[in-house]
Design goal:
Elements (H helix, E strand, L loop, with lengths): L3 H10 L4 E7 L6 H15 L5 E7 L6 H7 L17 E7 L6 H15 L3 E4 L9 H14 L3 E7 L6 H15 L11 E4 H9 L12 H11 L4 E8 L12 H17 L1 H4 L10 E2 L14 H22 L2 H10 L9 H17 L4 H6 L1 H15 L5 H17 L1 H8 L1
Parallel strand pairs: 1-2, 1-4, 2-3, 5-7, 7-8
Antiparallel strand pairs: 4-6, 5-6
Helix pairs in contact: 2-5, 4-7, 6-9, 6-16, 8-9, 11-15, 12-13, 13-16, 13-17
């Protein structure tokens, strides 16, 4: 529920055409840039629309909210913008409920509903690469082309976004049949009617409110037949991490949301075969990307150690065929985990979650070393590949997941 002062503020504003929400938590170093980009996007591309900027904050103690309050663009002329955005409102509010990005989004959805907003977007507070064009690309497909959900399409370093590349994109594509390249991108456009649909779902006291909101938004839109597209945003630059550093919690969070959604939409994904592309908005171009340093030997060592120490548990999760394949990879030279084995492994984990072969926490924690092994294998494969060759390599991985979907369904049932 919205706080009383926010409800009063919404009554003062009355209604709005477009909205951009920025969830935040201690983002004082970057959020000023994000706010300026949003304001410039409103002024440049939607000067005649009644716009509102929402900062939904999780209790920042570093001055994040104060920066949002005072940040304004004073010189539009140097941005080649002829007129100021005179129809802009701004609301800065702490959100209530379970701490997490999902609860921040819920507040944004509620404000969108309260103002009858037609088109919305959410963008991360730690972005360094956001430009005013992002606002047009995330909102205009909804406002003028009838789309309900706009997924971001970023260019990323080939060693960045490894959870997306090796698991989330191949699985969601195989399950739901739409080629949404960045299903957990973090920056989305969506219609007012989809925001209302999200609010009506009974998830806001669950883990979705803490984490997993990105994959939940994407899957909910696709599985329920909303009209989806992608927007090319160029590079996403914030704070890239080496794939083997501090990822167990992130992997657990993303996979728990992914598997939970498989349970909810079982009747829908079982009927899907193959996949189809979705429309892309925006001018595509190449960009220079910040390097991501990868310690291959460390990842392979963690993979082998995980199989040695967790082998008895992993054996209960995997099929006999998959477990034998995993054991063989330990002896492979050069090190490699082929795509077919990897697809079976991920599907085995989904089935183990579904059948509750042990606690969900134990199931997901044992996947971390296996994931590191597949990332190491992909890094070795792509060492000399350019961006287009990397996409070809990931396309082959996705096709393998689609082909082995019958394996998933047979084991699931």
């Amino acid at each position: 529920m919205l706080r009383e002062e926010i409800s009063r503020r919404l009554k003062e504003i009355g209604s709005a055409d477009i909205l951009v929400g920025i969830p935040s938590y201690n983002n004082a170093d970057t959020i000023g840039h994000v706010v300026r980009a949003v304001q410039a996007g409103f002024a440049k591309y939607f000067p005649d629309k009644k716009a509102i900027l929402i900062n939904s904050d999780g209790g920042s103690t570093d001055g994040t909210r104060e920066i949002v309050e005072k940040t304004m663009i004073d010189d539009f002329e140097h941005l080649l913008i002829n007129q100021r955005q005179t129809l802009l409102s701004k609301i800065v509010t702490p959100y209530h409920g379970i701490p997490g990005k999902g609860s921040a989004f819920r507040t944004i959805f509620e404000i969108a509903r309260g103002l009858g907003v037609r088109a919305c977007a959410v963008v991360d507070a730690d972005l360094r690469s956001i430009t005013p064009e992002w606002i047009e690309l995330l909102i205009r497909p909804v406002l003028e082309h009838g789309f309900d959900f706009v997924s971001p399409y970023y260019l990323r370093h080939k060693y960045d976004g490894t959870i997306t590349n090796s698991i989330v994109y191949p699985v969601t594509r195989a399950l739901y049949g739409r080629r949404i390249r960045q299903p957990i991108g973090g920056d989305f456009g969506f219609s007012g009617r989809l925001a209302e649909f999200y609010l009506a779902k009974d998830v806001w006291e669950s883990d979705v409110a803490r984490f997993g909101i990105d994959i939940w938004m994407t899957t909910t839109a696709v599985a329920n037949g909303f009209k989806v597209c992608q927007a090319f945003l160029g590079a996403k630059i914030h704070a890239p991490k080496e794939p083997s550093s501090d990822l167990s919690a992130m992997l657990t969070q993303v996979l728990s949301a992914l598997f939970m959604l498989m349970e909810e939409y079982e009747d829908k994904w079982k009927r899907v075969r193959g996949s189809s592309p979705i429309p892309m908005f925006g001018f595509q171009f190449s960009v220079g990307l910040e390097p991501v340093h990868v310690n291959i030997d460390r990842m392979i060592d963690m993979y082998k150690l995980g199989i040695k120490e967790l082998g008895d548990i992993i054996r209960e999760i995997l099929s006999e065929e998959s477990f034998d394949g995993v054991k063989e990879t330990v002896k492979s030279s050069p090190f490699s985990i082929d795509d077919e084995l990897w697809a079976r492994v991920i599907y085995d984990y989904a089935v183990a979650w579904h059948k509750k072969v042990m606690s969900k926490e134990h199931i997901l924690k044992t996947l971390t070393p296996l994931y590191l092994g597949k990332v190491a294998s992909l890094v070795i494969d792509m060492a000399d590949s350019n961006a287009s060759q990397v996409e070809e390599r990931l396309e082959a991985l996705c096709v393998t997941f689609e082909r082995l979907k019958t394996y998933l369904i047979e084991r699931w049932d």
